[in-house]
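Key idea: predict the complex, not the pieces.
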Amino acid sequence: MPKVKINGIQIEFEPGVTVLEAARFLGIPIPTLCHDDGLKPYGACRLCMVEAGFPPRHRLQSACTLPVEEGLVVQTHSARVERARRLLLELYVATCPQSKTIQDLASRYGVRQVRLEPAFRDCIQCGKCVRMCAEQMMAGAIGFAHRGARREVMSPFHSQSEVCRQCGACLYICPVCELRCQGARPETTLCSGCINFSPACLNYHDQAMCFLEPCVACELAGPLRLAGPLSKDRVWHKPEPPKEHGELL
Amino acid sequence: MSAAPPRIVTLTDLRRAATRGRRTLLPKQPKILVGMGTCGLATGAEEVYEALLDEVQRRKLNYGVTPTGCIGWCGQEPLVDLQLPGQPRITYGRMDARHARELVRGVPHGDLKPKWAVGLLTGYENPLTGRRLRYSPQRARVDGVPRYEDLPLFRSQVRWAARNCGVINPASLDEYIARGGYFGLHKALSASAPAGIIAEVASSGLRGRGGAGFPTGKKWETVARQAATPKYVICNADEGDPGAYMNRTLLESDPHSVLEGMCIGAHAMGATEGIVYVREEYPLAVTRMREAIAQAEAAGLLGANIFSSGFNLRIRITKGAGAFVCGEETALIASLEGREGEPCQRPPFPAERGFCGKPTCINNVETWADIPLIVMRGGEWYAQLGTNSSKGTKTFCLVGAVKNTAMIEVPLGTTLRKVVEEIGGGVPEGRRFKAIQTGGPSGGCVPEALLDMEVDYESLTSAGAIMGSGGMIVMDDSTCMVDIAKYFLGFLADESCGKCFSCREGLRRLHEIVSRITEGHGSEQDIALLEDLAWMVRETSLCGLGQTAPNPLLSTIRHFRDEYLAHVREKRCPAKVCRQLIAYRIEPTLCNGCGACVKACTSVAILGEKKSPHRIDDAHCIKCGACLEVCQPNAILVE
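Result:
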């Protein structure tokens, strides 16, 4: 079995175990955004970077995709790792300043200033929803489109996917938009497909990014919610907020 | 070329093909060659070729007219070569149809138009065989034409990978064999054990020519060691760097050398299928490669039981859909498998688990083209040129502010100064050299102070640049280095696949900040922020694109920090490029009031009566520079 050295601790692991799993086994916290135990490693969020290699060579590598190997030496909290992580989190906060998950992580890893202008993006493209849909729900109803700065998660051609069962798994697993979906009842955790929400969470949130098309709650909201069939640029019409909490529109 | 070429099974067949090829390569009657690579065609080689054919037919002359590849003299295209039996080859530059017809008319009377000739090719060495074809320049009936070996452009070049470019007809298998082609494959299949070939490649010190410089022998060993089958060999021809076209030239001018290299590699590693991944944007390269594969299959040099040795290999072509990132090997594999062209984290390396999860060897076009040389002449011979860590030769595309724009091939270890000043002919008069960008968009800018550096993988990396696939863009003092960094960052932010956060968002932010600096809204803190972010992108990105993308920015900050400071402190662009930081003014003592600038100005920003000095209205001026070009007395100043 491969013997690795993580932060000075020499230990053997089964082949195929990743450095992230090994470090967590040892109780060493490594932050992640795109990793989930039930999904295939993706390596997109770059937060799990560790300094790893075979001495004297070592460089930053993502722990979630790096398998343990005989003689591998890993440092999970070296100065280089910490600096990279802080800069990454600074960029994350600037990209999605409204996300509580990201704010918490940034606070935990000592980000004290953000020198970049906030972008207020909804999505960090960690790919969790896409992988959840394909790997766990066996649907593949959503995917990535375009590339670079224009890359986004969407259903095929922005229309409703025929294979979508509206299970809500994509909403469930999203690490950044969890706040947005609490809708009418902030104290509740995530639902199964907005069905419990009344009125629809969209009443409260502009540009909600929801792949349930049509969302059951939106269906309940009826023609008020959508201007005609789903068009490419998705014009959402926001009605007046309901007078009484919990009242159906 | 005959319709159904005879099958080549034995060494005798190969020799027979070589004899056939020699007959068309060096015929007994005069032969005219037209350089018909994409570069030639773009400048009108097709027209020249038709005119030559027509004129030869009309005059009932027994001359051969054949297309050939690109010899690399891009500045003189379209090129026409006249080869009279037993005489040195005469190269004519910048030909058009009228000149071509006149040339044909003159040849029977001995009028060889020395005025149009640009070079005399008195011989060329064939690196595959070591033999040299040589004619005395006295035998050419032209005077005063410089010989290729005296031309600064060609004097220091060693054409190994590009050995057949501009020499053979790329559509002729026989001519390729006549130049020693496929003898290496025969040698590899009959005489050498696979392990022996790999050892030979390892001893040659050949490193991946796609840019990263991974030792080829080591990669082959890894693939050969794998137990899983089938194994694949892939030729990476997804060349996308702005200003670089080495791979295109090789595929267009000598497709068989790449095929032969792949065959040898496949035999050495035990692969049974080959794929050429080539850009859709290279239609001629695709066509020539397709033809070459068909020819090789018809001749039995590809397919089942090659040279009756029991070795089988099929090669097919896949066209890339235009994503720059697909040149990265894991993204290339994803694209081949029909997935989005996005890289995956390595390890596992493609050599262990690549295309369809099987061991895959991906090498660049040039690497494959170098293989027959190593097999024929041995690793030790190949290692005679180069530096301690980088052996052999490398092709480069020398473009930008140099007199000779060209595709060149020089031994590694040649100094940058030699490349720029001798081969490139230096920067055109009136301008000064400022920097050379090596390695494409992910490379770095090397300033004049480092020009005496020897070109190899390590020294370029230490200067903040990379070898890359071999683009070299020369910049003169009219280039703003901040603007250059902005251009390359914009290119890479657009070409980033967007999978990993640091590359997607990091490059977008870097481009944003540099744009802000060029618009005069930057501050000194911005430079520190740029360095921080660039470091982060380089350290944490998933693939080679992101890891090298900050190079142009970091190298320009490192070598040209004063220019960044001028932009942020004084809000001034020293090279007078950044539009928001410059103003156009008319010097009243120089202006003669001709009004040419008024006509040229599209935004009605120039005011003034005829025959009296004009002036520019800053509020309307869009700083396009149109007035600058038309002003005869040079009265328009940029400040």
